[in-house]
Every structure is written in structure tokens, then in C-alpha cells.
Amino acid sequence: MSFAWAKPYEPQTGFTKWIDEKLPLPRLVYNAVGAGYPVPRNLNYMWNFGVLAGFCLMIQIVTGVILAMHYAANTEVAFATTEHIMRNVNSGWLMRYAHANGASFFFIVIYLHIFRGLFYSSYKAPREMIWLLGVVIFLLMMATAFMGYVLPWGQMSFWGAKVITGLFGAIPLVGESLQVWLVGGFAPDNAALNRFFSLHFLLPFVIAGVVILHIWALHIPGSSNPTGIEVKQESDTVPFHPYYTAKDGFGLGIFLLAFTFMVFFLPNMLGHPDNYIEANPLSTPALIVPEWYFLPFYAILRAFTDDLTIPFTGIVLIQAKLLGVIAMFGSILLWFFLPWLDKSPVRSGHYRPMFKKFFWFGFIPCMIALFIAGGAPAEQPYVLLSQIATAYYFLHFLVILPIVSQIEVPKPLPYSITESVLGSDDAAPGKTASSGAKGADDIGSLQPAE
Amino acid sequence: MADANEANEGVRRRDFIHVAALSTAGVGAAASALPLVSQMAPSADVLAESTTDVDVSAIEAGQSIKTVFRKQPLFVKRLTPEEIAEANEVDVADLRDQESLTDRLGEGNEDILVTMGVCTHLGCVPLGAAEGENKGEYGGYFCPCHGSHYDTAGRIRKGPAPTNLVVPDFAFTSESVIRVG
Fold first, then answer.
1. B99/B17 same-domain check
2. For chain B, how many structural domains are there in total?
3. B146 labelled catalytic
């Protein structure tokens, strides 16, 4: 599953030859992230975030497994063992701060990764499956992060759990029984805390599994690139190693600077002080807000304040609460249909003038508005702000994107990736004037070979 | 020869074994999924704590107490005559969840309003039970999470909550004690 010119793996020593015959794992790695994987030569730094997301998952699994050695999932002691980790366990504070901030950085990285995909239309054929698996990973991340936030059993933990499990109560007929079943009681308590801990430990490994599928699906067409045109010839690509291992390594360095700065100097900036108060089922915090990475979706949930009724009759079709829940889940499930909603044959936003305007001046401000409204109290003008932004969000994906992709006149695309980088195909190293034109005859060899 | 006959009939004796074996295995798999699912439902000890007794004699008119019923907050309030009048003035037909004050107090109960302290939107504890808390625009309870306003009878009047604050089953076991649940 790579291009015809991909460098084959050749074990050099007797030992690596022996391994290659028994279990060709080094060959797999070589072809996946080594010199055997040709990658478009023009990737910009927006293409760093896939590797960074994988790195974040590793941070979370390593620190998380360590935290689980010192934490006890019981409502009597959960809050105390969290403090025990902070105060008594050697380097416990570092593990917990790295884990908590690691979650935030994981979401920062994943949001940039998703916005990269949205701007460069990385979801379009032949890469739909990569996108769909990515949405699955995002949903699993949300579930994992939510359950992890419950574990310290602080006020925000408890009330977050109550509000989110309360969402299921909005489902007609079965909602209340479903909610009681999910929580294992009438309100979140020991049963809920225990099962959340169990699932919070399990899901990251499920994510790791889906990540492998995500990368597998990526290696069939190969990486997309900022021009959005497909690889045509060998000069369009460079081997992943050493070119992109170096570029990703540099990005990783920048990431670690920011990450360690937060862990060591502002460890609680992204958290909520109320979560250092032990859970109290009889007292709701003045303002329940989820972690920052859920704010846009929380804003969509709260945007629905009136029931959907048949006009002039007062007959309620859908209650406000259920509408909010449907819209919140729908706002993400919508992404599953994105490859088929955006019909433009041009991928990159750079060559799509109309799309580009709606992206930067419509969609991005809309997401910022949802962030602000989600973190604000449920009062005006924030309710109105969340309603306008929610309306635009759905309008963007369901109306603007399909229409723009039909009426827009895209800018002319370069002939090849080489041309976009070097000015002409002939400028590529090792190319003569005649061999540059040869590419067009060679169409058969340009298809990725399995 | 036997093979030829079976091929002609289209259905082989072996097909029966296939269907029977797979069906049995399928039923077995489904049956073994039952305990895997039901273990998540509330356990016996959670269900056992299902009634709460509350002494209402010490509650003055206009005062409420917060207690716990099934691990969730319970509000018990003695309504003032003004609050009762306010609740009775409302036209029930205009309400989102159409209940009169009498429906909510029950037979032979004039002023003890018993409701869950759980907003019917997403389960926050509404304010208004303790002194000095925001009672909302209708003088009852106000949920700070998403801005639901309840009136003096605990009925939803404004905001996203779909129904009135839940009135649990309760009965007076004596002049001054109610048993909830």
C-alpha cells in the first residue's frame, strides 16, 4: 500500500533478516513511518497534528496507568486519594497535572487536526474512511474525557456527571430508565464512579485500536497535502523518514515547550476551582460549566429554550430539552456526512475563494461565539449569541457548504505538487527536461500500488 | 448418490443442523448478554434506601428544608397564604405541565409542598429552598444551570425544563411526619 517508487525494506543483518521472516514488524514500521512511506513534499505545519495527537494519547495512557496505581474509585475516598496523589505520592502532582493538562492539549491538537481537515477538505474521496474513523476517535475521546473528569469526585465532577447523564433522560419513553441504568442508581454515586473508572481505563486502548485503523486507512491513498491535488510522480514525494520525522520532531519540541510550561507554571488554569471542593449532592455550584473543550457543544445544548410546537395549537412536538440534546449530538454526527455534503471537486481551501470566505468569516467566528456562550451563564445576551451561532453552525454544514460547492468557480490548480513547490516539474532534482513530460504517459504507475 | 438427491431437493439434512446449531448458539449468546446488561441497573442496597421520613412540625410558613430521598435532594416547604394564593391565581391551561396546586399537594394537605430538589431539565439542584437564595421570577425555585424558573407550587414557568419539579409519593404517617417513597 504505497507508491510504486516506495523504497522497499531490506533487512541488513542476520538478526533483522531472521525477525523479518518470523514477524515482519520492523518492515511494517519502515513502510508506515519510515523511509518506505513516500509523503507529499509540500506538507505544512498543519500536518504535524496527527503525530502530535498520537503523542498525546501516549502521554495520557502512561500518566493515566500510573495515576490508577494510587487512586481508588470509591465515593468515600476518591477525593482523598486524588489529594493523596497531589501531596504524598512521589511525583504524583506531576503525573496528575500532566494528565489533566494532557487532556486539554490532546483536545487542542485534535481540534487543530480537525480544522486542518475541514479547511483542506481532507475528508473527500478517496479519504472518507480516514475522516469517518477520525470522528469515531473524537467521540471516544469525548466520552473518555468526560468520565475522567468525574473521577476526582469534586463538585464539577459530580454535577458534570449529573447533567450529562441527565441528557439521556430526555429521550422519550425509555429515557428515565436508561438514565437510572447508566448511573446504577437515582443519582450519580458509587456505582457510577466505579463504572466510569473502569470505562475510563478501557476506552484509551479502544482509541488506540481505532487510531491504528485510522493510520491504516491513511496509508492506502497516502497523505493529503496543501494543494489538494494527488501525487502524480516520484518528485512529488519525499520519504517520511528522515524528512517528516524531522519536521514532526521540531513540532513536537514546540508542543512540549507549551505543554510543560502549562504543567509547571499554570497547572490549574484550564481547570475549574470548584473541583477542589468535594462532591456534594445537595449543593449545585453557582455556574456549572464543562471543561473548556466541551464548551461549543454545551452552548448548542443550551441554545434551545422553547419547545417545538405546532403553531397556534400549543401541541408540543419536541420538548426543548430533547431538542437541545438532539442538536448537540447532531452537531458532531453531522461530520459523518461531510464527505457527501461538500460536493466540490477541489479539495484545498486555498483554491476555493468562496468557501475560504465562509470558512474564515463564518465558520471560525461561529465556533468562537459558541465557545464564549458555552462558558457564560444562561442569561442574555449569551443565550441569543448561542442561538445565532448554533443556527449558523447547522446552516454552514447543511446549506452553505453544499450550495457553495455547486456554484463556486475554483482557482486554477497547479499541474503537480512539484510544480507548486518548485515552479515546474523539470526543476525537481534528478530530472531532465524530457523526463518531466514523461509523467503523463506513465499514468499506470502513478496509482498507489497495494 | 445421497449427495445427488440432496442437491436436487435444494435443502440438505445438514442445513437443519447448521440452522439449529447457530440458533442455539445465538439464543445462548443473547441469554448470556442479559446479566452483562442488568448488572448496571441499581443494586439491592441502592434500592433498599427507598423511603425517607420527614418531621414537618418545625417548618414555619415560608420556610423550606432540604433533605435526602434516594440520594437526591428533597425540598419540603410550608407555603405562606400569599404563595398559595399566587399559585391558585394561575390558569392551569396556560402551564407547560398542567397541574393545579391541589394536584401537587394531595388530599387533605393544605400547605406542605414536597418536591424533589432536582431540576427536571438536567438534574441540578434549584435555588430558593434556603433563605436568601434567588427564587426566580415566579417566587418559587430557580435553577442556575440553565435558567429554569419554577413558581410557588414548584411548576415550570420559564426556561428549558420540560416538567414541574417532581412530587414524589408521600403520605402523612402522623400529624407531623411524612413518609416519602
1. no
2. 2
3. yes
Count of all residues that appear for chain B in the document: 181
| Pair type for strands B139-143 and B112-116 | unpaired
Q: Do B160 and A195 touch (CB under 8 A)?
A: no
**Burial zone of B128 (CB within 10 Å; 0-12 exposed, 13-18 middle, 19+ buried):** buried
Instruction: Nearest chain B residue to A289 by CA: give it.
Output: B145
What percentage of chain A has pLDDT greater than the value 70? Answer: 93
Q: What is the pLDDT of residues A190-205, one digit of tens each?
A: 999 999 999 999 999 9
Contact B123 A166 (CB under 8 A): yes
Across B77-90, b (16+ Cβ under 10 Å) vs e yields bbbeeebbebbeeb
CA distance, residue B146 to nearest chain A CA (Å): 5
Indicate whether B69 and B92 sit together in one domain. yes
Q: Percent helix, strand and coil across chain B, each rounded to 5?
A: 30, 25, 45
Q: Are B26 and B61 members of one domain? A: no
pLDDT of residue A149: 95
Cα distances (angstroms) measured from residue A233 to each of A417, A422, A435, A445: 9, 14, 11, 8
Residues B58, B37 share a domain: no
Provide the domain limits for residue B73: 47-180
pTM of the predicted model, to two decimals?
0.85
pLDDT for B9:
65
Average pLDDT of chain A, as a whole number = 89
Question: Which residue, among B122, B127, B148, B180, would best test binding to A if mutated, counting the most A CBs under 10 Å from its CB?
Answer: B122
Q: Which residues of B touch A182 (CB under 8 A)?
A: 40
B66 and B17 in one domain? no
Measured between alpha carbons, how far is A358 from A337 in angstroms, rounded to an integer?
A: 19
**Chain A residues with CB within 8 Å of chain B CB:** 159, 162-163, 165-167, 169-170, 180-182, 184-187, 189, 191, 195, 281-284, 286-288, 302, 304-305, 307, 319-322, 324, 377-379, 383
What distances in angstroms separate CA A2 from CA A37, A125, A209, A448, B173, one per listed residue? Answer: 7, 17, 22, 5, 79
Contacts of B122 in chain A (CB under 8 A): 162-163, 166-167, 169, 321
- pLDDT-derived band at B5 (thresholds 50, 70, 90) equals low
Backbone φ and ψ for A278, nearest 5 degrees, come out as -65, 150
Q: Given B43, B122, B161, which is nearest A191 (Cβ)?
A: B43
Nearest chain B residue to A158, by CA: B124
Decide if pLDDT at A441 tops 70: no
B70 touches A: beta carbon within 8 Å: yes
Residues 6+ apart with CB under 8 A from B176: B55, B56, B57
Contacts of residue A286 in chain B, CB cutoff 8 Å? 144
Is there a single domain that holds both residue B51 and residue B36?
no
Nearest-by-CA chain B residue for A304: B160
- Count of CB contacts below 8 A, A vs B? 96
Extents of the domains making up chain A: 37-267, 298-419
> Does residue B65 share a domain with residue B34?
no
User: A51-110 pLDDT, tens per residue?
Assistant: 999 999 999 999 999 999 999 999 999 999 999 999 999 999 999 999 999 999 999 999
Q: ipTM of this model?
A: 0.70
CATH class given for the domain over A37-267: mainly alpha
